[in-house]
Amino acid sequence: MSRGGGKKRSTLGLILDVILVFATGGLWLIWILVRYLRNNS
What we know:
The protein is built from two helices and no strands. The protein is an all-alpha fold. It has one domain.
């Protein structure tokens, strides 16, 4: 998905996340949290 580099989270992806959080009123943040908890449980 990401082009080159060993960083798991690119700066562009981080900016996109911030935009999505504001655009969806925090729903995107909740979705990420749910996905994160599911993967680590």
